[in-house]
Amino acid sequence: MARTAVSGRLATRLRWQAAALIERREESPTAQTLAFDLPGWAGHLPGQHVDVRLTAEDGYSTQRSYSIASAPDADRVELTVQRVPDGEVSPYLADDLMVGDAVEIRGPVGGWFVWRPEQLEPVLLIAGGSGVVPLMSMIRVRGMIGSRVPFRLLYSVRDPADRLYGPELDRGAPGLDTTWVYTRGTPDDWARPAGRLTPDDLVRWGWPADFEPTCYVCGPTGFVEAAAGMLVALGHHPDRIRTERFGPSGG
Amino acid sequence: MPIISRGFHGRKPDPGRKLPPGQYETFDFPVLSAGPTPRVSRDDWKFTVTTESGARHQWDWGRLMALPAERPTVDLHCVTKWSKFGTHWEGVSLDVLLEDVETEAEFALVHSYGGYTTNLPLEDLLDGKAWIAHRYDGEELAAEHGGPARLLVPHLYLWKSAKWVSGIQLMLEDEAGFWESAGYHEYGDPWREQRYQGD
């Protein structure tokens, strides 16, 4: 009752809806993009996620959150699922769910780790592993609307086989610069030796702090802690650094 | 009729564990936060309660440490679906901190170093339900988990347990905090699965 003071805001319940798998695509040996048909999907902001609910025949059900990889496209929503070894949900989604099978989805969720097309400042995207997924949605929306906002992506992966969206990022787009950071193994003739992201990488390939970019950092906790700490040390204001972390239990 | 995902079996939870709806058990301690981890030294740390009349009550680290501490063992439920059972904390009950605070307020807006906020009814902070926690599992509370000190209000989703807590503003009217303004539920009871606005 007393709580209605805050509820002047729109509060329509996010409903679960059946979502049939219409296409799957391998992104890497351990990650699959799953395209679902969501009739009546009202669209989303890039960076938002959905909740996915799986129900077994005996009635047991469980939920996980997944970032949306795609730009809004009518009733189609794409998620990219990284198989977590020994996970309860991701191996099923990555390996077993077949075209025509259904899950339940509700969303979109999240109003902070998003890029809004009316933002005009430069954007710095820093991804670790499958943390690139919500950032890819931002890149795709930027392309879809023909935005000229300059984007830079620093994308850290273990080795070339772990790249997600490699061909699409290699094709690139005007005003989008992508820098690959390989931590364990590089392609042949690669100038930067394999190693974790360093402040020097951010100085060379990111934006200077006085350009006042909005920085989006997404990946495993250790990666996000390190990258966000480096950005602060380089003078980026903490208010312009948005983070999203994938715990090891994301499975 | 629920939608059955063909061939999905899942992993039934330990029947000895009472999980809120939609949650699963985890054994590590994931970190979630919206920005960089603020680094606040104990020397600079202050905790301030401000009432609706503007009266301020402030504690520094030494005064907080001088107060009687409790050692609650509680279950944590994160809106991102993980639950962690039997976590061991040490901290000062909000009953102790608010004992001498004169207020007619019904609402609290919790503030953190780094600018985070979260709102909840004042009654949810009282009667042994909430602590300013400064130790976890026998150790000083690590910065990524909210150290030097965080709010611990375990009967609500964990985003209400503000990390890096700097103060509590007592108010006559409710005001939405950070996640509450970004699509999440204003109250956040895990047992009623109040994750998002409208749940």
From TrEMBL, chain A:
Alphabetized GO MF terms: 2 iron, 2 sulfur cluster binding; oxidoreductase activity
PROSITE patterns: FAD_FR
Record domain FAD-binding FR-type: where: 14-115
Gene3D superfamilies the record matches: Nucleotide-binding domain of ferredoxin-NADP reductase (FNR) module (3.40.50.80), Translation factors (2.40.30.10)
Necessary cofactors: FAD
Pfam families named among the record's database cross-references: FAD_binding_6 (PF00970), NAD_binding_1 (PF00175)
Keyword annotations from UniProtKB, A to Z: 2Fe-2S, Iron, Iron-sulfur, Metal-binding
UniProt entry tagged with the keyword Cell membrane: no
Keyword Repressor: no
Protein name per UniProt: Flavodoxin reductases (Ferredoxin-NADPH reductases) family 1
Species in which this protein is naturally found: Actinacidiphila cocklensis
Organism ancestry: Bacteria, Bacillati, Actinomycetota, Actinomycetes, Kitasatosporales
Automatic annotation (TrEMBL), chain B:
Taxonomy of the source species: Bacteria, Bacillati, Actinomycetota, Actinomycetes, Kitasatosporales
Molecular function via GO: oxidoreductase activity
Name of the protein this chain belongs to: Uncharacterized oxidoreductase YuiH
Record keywords, A-Z: Oxidoreductase
Entry EC no(s): 1.-.-.-
Domain Oxidoreductase molybdopterin-binding: 35-179
Disordered: annotated span: 1-21
InterPro entries given in the database record: OxRdtase_Mopterin-bd_dom, OxRdtase_Mopterin-bd_sf
SUPFAM superfamilies in the cross-refs: Oxidoreductase molybdopterin-binding domain
Gene3D superfamilies: Oxidoreductase, molybdopterin-binding domain
Top EC class of this enzyme: oxidoreductase
Keyword Oxidoreductase belongs to the record: yes
Record-linked Pfam families: Oxidored_molyb
